[in-house]
Amino acid sequence: MCGVIGIFGHPEASNLAYLGLHALQHRGQESAGIVSSDGQQLRWVREMGHVGEIFTEERLRQLPGSAAIGHVRYSTTGDSVSKNAQPLAVNYAHGSIAIAHNGNLVDAADVRARLENEGSIFQSTSDTEIILHLIAHSREGDLPSRIADALRSVHGAYSLVFLSETSLIVVRDALGIRPLSLGRHKKSGWVVASETCAFELIEAEYIRDIEPGEMLVIDSDGARSLRPFMPEEPRRCVFEWIYFARPDSNIAGQSVYAARENMGRRLALEHPVPADIVIPVPDSGTAAAIGYARESGIPFDQGLIRSHYIGRTFIEPTESIRHFGVKLKLSPVRDVLAGKRVIVVDDSIVRGTTSGKIIGMIRSAGAREVHLRISSPPTIGPCHYGIDTPDRNKLIASSHTVDEVRRFVGADSLGYLSLEGLHQSLSSVLTQHEHRGLCDGCFSNDYPIPLPAPARTRQLRLISV
Ligand code: AMP
Question: How far is the CA of 361 from the centre of ligand 1 (A)?
Fold first, then answer.
């Protein structure tokens, strides 16, 4: 759960990176940073907090040059502390290099332990630093080869942007789990970003997605595409379309908004119920609620108002803040809800606490019935590839039936989109080729990248050999 951006060949690179990070703020709100290059030297600013708070005019002036990379972070590996803020930047035998990472390495602990045994000293607890150590250890000749060599030693999801004094290098893992798109600024230069909504803001044109398994090297000679990894069937993360990406972004060239609307339409076909209004949990449920209303013919209304001065509730790491957040973030509109049979649409149920509070709010505003509709299947497994879903034992649907979840959240009825319905919703916005390869591990337990065996198991095996 992070966002990355890279700019090359524009005189105001760090200003554009700053604006782009604003558009990616929803992907991480713990820390943000920018590293720039003026062709000779890397400079950086990175801190805990939101993009708008960290980057003053004065700080942006400290980041000169025509190339820059930026990052917004929500931790999935490593603590939420300033030493883990990205982009990370180091000097090593071959010069300077900075890295910004969206994704998660599944074997980070093992690779780190091996590197530490060989003498590496780590400055952070994030999995991303491992890649820098592997690059420094590599015996390959040029930077693209050293990066490829490093990445062949790790497993997991990564959409990466690297900055050296003279080049921007971007890499997407062979399964293409996290998104990464390429654009061109209307005046000059190249742009890469986790989501295309960043292009809109900085007036760049979308060209294409960085392909799964592609490395793109951008320098003063232009851009060249390399294929350093064995080709694999892509497995793009389905949850980006359901919740994580902004609805005004396109992933794999396809509209997130249209995908969500389709999910809502499909949900209406799978779980119809007589009602007076369809309302979304804003903003995550809005496009799906519109789809549900259009398909069912039941009027769409705004029964919940969202405060825009508080971020995503879930994204705040502690339980106490999360509970507080739901009340701070949403409030019911009595005039819309009183006396009505209400269908409320949200994108997912994780622990079940948010839905329970929302249903309580809708009832206390006088609704006669509350029917909860979820535009994704039950979340039964954690994500190991960069989305912060909690451990399986905290996922309510992993150990409870749909009716038990319904009772827990206090709804009159509950309907989830089926896994098949989810795939059907996406198949009409994705080409057949793109649709074939999706990762839906959190809904199916079908994980494309195997996890390393727990340390204890390996120890037992060692002893018995
Ligand atoms: P919960 O209270 O744990 O069931 O949280 C469910 C709410 O969190 C839903 O409204 C979702 O929109 C939102 N949500 C689901 N997954 C995530 C995630 N990985 N990060 C942030 N928010 C999420």
Answer: 17
